[in-house]
Amino acid sequence: MKRGLVAGWAGIVLVAQVAGAAAIEKPADLQERTVATGLKTRVSAHYLLQADCSSGGDTVVRILTPPKQGKVEIEEHPVVMSYPKDNAASACNGKSIPGKVVLYQSNDGYTGKDEVQLEIFFQNGLSRKLKLQILVK
């Protein structure tokens, strides 16, 4: 029996071999978020979803570059599926699976731009880098 997997926040790091040289990764995916100053806010969630709507295993999220104007926390937390109707994974909408959520909180009173870079590892052997550009208001 074949089992399909969907990586949360659908992004896959593509690796290319260049004439026997080391593998080259594509640049980090970029996502923008807007948050209120001082408020701890969920800015991303990561999980591995199987075709039967169950979890595909644990996901590891590492902070590569921490924010300069705040802090980031990574917590285990159930993630409720919400895909567009034309996505095959929409059959899982409303169901929750274990995942990792990334929470950002700016320094008190700070407004402006901040950034954090993450690397996410999925249990199926895929990984991706993610750069979050955060506008703090």
What fraction of the residues are assigned to beta strands by DSSP?
A: over 45%
- The structural domain count equals 1
Low-confidence stretches are 1-22
Write the H/E string, N to C.
Answer: EEEEEEEEEEE
User: How much helix is in the residues?
Assistant: under 10%
Distance between the termini: 50 Å
Please tell me the overall pLDDT. 85
CATH fold descriptor: Immunoglobulin-like
For the largest beta-sheet, the strand count, sense and barrel status come to:
4 strands, mixed
Strand segment tally: 11
Coarse structural class: mainly beta
CA-atom Rg in angstroms = 16 Å
What is the overall silhouette? globular
Can you give a write-up of this model?
The protein is 0% helix and 53% strand. The protein is mainly beta and 137 residues long. It has a single domain, classed as Sandwich (Immunoglobulin-like), CATH 2.60.40. Strands 4-11-10-7 form a 4-stranded mixed β-sheet, with no helix packed on it. A 3-stranded antiparallel β-sheet has the order 5-9-8, with no helix packed on it. Strands 1-6 form a two-stranded antiparallel ribbon. Residues 1-22 have low confidence and may be disordered.
